[in-house]
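Support case: heme C complex. Customer-provided input:
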Amino acid sequence: MKLRIAPVLLASVSMLAWMQAPAQDGPTLFKTKCAMCHGDQGQGKPPMAPKLAGTTKDVAAVLTKGGEAKAPHVNPMSTLTPVQVTALVAFVKTLK
Ligand code: HEC
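Agent response - structure generated as follows:
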């Protein structure tokens, strides 16, 4: 019996890991959730969105409380977990 359950368990655990892996990673999160507006390197895409490299704004606050009314940070981004916010904040700091 144990021999039959083990592969199923292993498969579910690796599925979970696969599903969560990209979601915890700053560069990947940025690419999938931010780059379309802010650019791959956070260089900005005027007039769509400002440059993020070197921003003096509190990135965590923008992502959890929202920016100005025209920016969609809170609504579509409300699925961000605290871990993801931390990863994104750290990644934005590395942008130059
Ligand atoms: C649909 C377009 C769009 C997406 C997607 C988007 N942003 Fe923005 N972002 C904006 C706009 C527009 C502004 C300028 C208005 C404002 O500050 O709210 C902005 C402003 C910001 C600011 C403030 C910058 C400054 O110096 O004023 C930060 C920080 C930021 N975004 C981070 C992010 C991060 C991190 C993501 C990905 C999780 C993201 N944004 C996704 C459009 C977007």
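The chain has a mean pLDDT of 81.

Case will auto-close in a few days if no follow-up is received.
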